[in-house]
Amino acid sequence: MFCTFTGMKFLYNLAIFLTSILLPIVAIFSKKLKLFVEGRKQTFSKIETLKNKKVIWFHAASLGEFEQARPIIEQLKNKGKSYKIVVTFFSPSGYEIRKDYPLADVVCYLPLDTKKNAKRFINKVNPKLAVFIKYEFWPNLLNELKNKEIPTILVSGILREKQLFFKSYGGFMRKSLNAFHHFFVQDVNSEKLLNSINFKNVTVAGDSRFDRVSKILKQDNHLDFISAFKDNKYTIVAGSTWQEDEELLVHYINNKASENEKFIIAPHTIKSDSIEALQKAINKKSILYSDVISSSVDKFLELKETQVFIIDTIGILTKIYAAADLAYVGGGLKTGLHNILEPATFGIPVMIGYKYEKFKEAVDLVNIGGCISIKNQQEFTENLEHLKNDANFRKLTGTINKKYIADNLGATKLIMNYINNHLTMLGKTHSSTQKNK
Fold it and tell me: Which residue in 31, 83, 333, 367 has the most C-beta neighbors within 10 A?
């Protein structure tokens, strides 16, 4: 057993070391990896500003996980806590979109998980509380948090039997879980898995994203140019689409769509060559968001006569969903389904691809009928036509989604009760220390 533990530890650290050597080379040929490498060069200079500050550190893999942290950060700021908020990302797709998040004092990349980086990062940030989101487990960082006795929690955690923690040879990874003072998990299965390896400090709290998306309905979601385009017609919004999703959409638009159907497509990738290829593939009248905002008011009049609106920008998809009669969410034909809770909160039907088993909310909604999964062009077309032609079915499906959101609120409250109790104890300890001095 010792050999297995030592061997896994050696292999992990070797893999991280080799990654640090190879990444700068590979990044020459990849724009995304270049962001990954170059962004990490700024991490330690950014956290220098935290010296002698009281810090709460949140770590998210990417944008979706950040949305799970967001309601907790907002609660901390709303309560006037005097802590600096640090947010780290692993992926450029999260960092690049949220690097200017106003409620965080520092937003930066997580350094690669070498022992040296872990010690340096934790020493400089020195958080009073570390919050990891969903399934981010970095052994060297976690071990350093454990060594320094820094309270650490997992939020909206989701665990699966296939993970290394639950394998006979996964001792190295299992040990890193000792860093967590508490696990707030999404489901009972995750609780049972943690219990099976003797972790009892677990609460089934659900997913904090439900609390986040429920607030969307309270904000102003009106966009003049979207209303002008919709023109009170039946509108399908396709969000965070990849090429595989867009091929299905284009085929339907070109061959099956009626004149009274409108389509808003917000691609995941908004590089100019990808957007240009998408627009060229569509043989119905289309327009780009960038053309609308850079032109005169006449473009808004033209929107009414346009059937396809391509959103070549980021940051407005949530508000666009408010205008949808049906949402198609991309990524489920590729490797990672995007956020289906945002359209679901508006009480509209949601369609996705078939690769959704890693997303609890998608599994739940497919099972109860609020979300429709498709595998191919035929299923895509048949379901779009069914939803378009059967208003009662469309309403029922959307109602299922809206109720599902309402039934799953409350994770943030449970987590905040724990955090507030922890911060209160810290405050008492600090006051006691000051008096003794």
Answer: 333
